[in-house]
Amino acid sequence: MKRAPFNKELVDFLLTVKKSLSEQAELGANPGQAPVVERKPTKVTFDKSSQPFSVIFSERGFLIEDTRMSFEELETAISKKYNIVLNHGDGLVLDAVKMQKILKYKDLY
């Protein structure tokens, strides 16, 4: 039986792949899984002309004034036709239109 000729480039490539897989295993990642990229929080200002309010989006949800919320809470409020009042009645009122504007950012986080 005849042996195939030695291919240094192929061996180098296989060693690189093996090293990469072992490093991923040490980090606890699944082989073939894309690395997780952490996104920085993003601040967006809505309704700049009338009653402006800022929302800080992050991987954990978003923050309006001093209230942390999730996209699911907004979806529930819209489905039940609720308004959300922040700061105990004297603050920002999130109606369905404002909630829809915030929900447009759901796919980014």
Task: Please tell me about this protein's structure.
It is a single chain. The chain has 109 residues and is α+β, with helices and mostly antiparallel strands. Helices cover 34% and strands 20% of the residues. The protein contains three helices and six strands; from the N terminus they run αββββαββα. It has helices at 8-27, 71-79, 96-103, and strands at residues 42-46, 53-58, 61-64, 67-69, 84-85, 93-94. The strands form two sheets. Strands 1-2-3-4 form a four-stranded antiparallel sheet. 6% of the residues are buried.
Task: Describe this protein with a few key phrases.
alpha+beta; 4-stranded antiparallel beta sheet
Query: Secondary-structure element order, as H and E?
Result: HEEEEHEEH
- In which range does the helix fraction lie? 25-40%
The overall average pLDDT, rounded, is 82
Largest sheet geometry: 4 strands, antiparallel
Shape: rod-shaped
* Uncertain segments: none
Largest beta sheet: strand ordering: 1-2-3-4
For the CA atoms, what is the radius of gyration? 25 Å
Structural class: alpha+beta
Helices, by number, come to 3
Beta content comes to 15-25%
Task: Give the topology.
Elements (H helix, E strand, L loop, with lengths): L7 H20 L14 E5 L6 E6 L2 E4 L2 E3 L1 H9 L4 E2 L7 E2 L1 H8 L6
Antiparallel strand pairs: 1-2, 2-3, 3-4, 5-6
Summed up:
The chain is an alpha+beta fold and 109 residues long.
